[in-house]
Amino acid sequence: MKDYQILLYYCYTAIADPEAFREEHHRLCLALNLRGRIIVAAEGLNGTVSGLREDCEKYMETVKADPRFAKIDFKVDAADKHAFAKLHVRHKPEIVHSNLHHIDPNKHTGIHLEPQEFKKMKDQDDVVVLDVRSDYEHSVGRFKNSVTLPIENFRDFPEKMDELKEKYKDKKILTYCTGGIKCEKASAFYSSKVSRTCTNCTAALLNTVLKPTAKILKANATCLITG
């Protein structure tokens, strides 16, 4: 068993005083000798940190003990050493830069699907699978037959909404990204544009691919996920 862990996580939840929370959270991470990057905003928490296994477990236990983060989903990977050189805990307007300050996933977002549900729905005729990630990200790997967007950053996503909502106005939209954080905002924003709340579903690529039923095929240096 490896001595270190890497944690990837996010949680949309209301934080009344994000600057005070940032300071408190920074102290917690320092006490546990964690390193990595954490973003705190009024809308929630987003981070990737590394540390000794027992310190990471204590961190997850402490965060989940706060009712605001009771449903946070930590993605955990084993490591031989720290993945980061330093610790940065910053207060920003959003936990993922989107220029969608008026969209609050705490109040409205897409339907969350389990990997098996996503797999069952994605090939239906009335469904479009939408990759909300950047050019660079989806060029590395994506779901077969998914719709990708010509965007350099997630903050460019809103500009593509008008063409999407017209082109797929009669379709159910399944959004996905790498960890889930972008899907939450993308599906909420899309729903607000098309006045539909039940047909936009979210799935994290990490959750789906890490399941044993998923298969990854490589073609022309592109990873096409078919499971």
TrEMBL record:
Give start-end of the signal peptide. Answer: none
Q: Which residues form the Rhodanese domain?
A: 123-189
Top-level taxon of the source organism = Bacteria
Full protein name: UPF0176 protein
What Pfam families does this protein's entry cite?
Rhodanese, UPF0176_N
Q: Which SUPFAM superfamilies match?
A: Rhodanese/Cell cycle control phosphatase
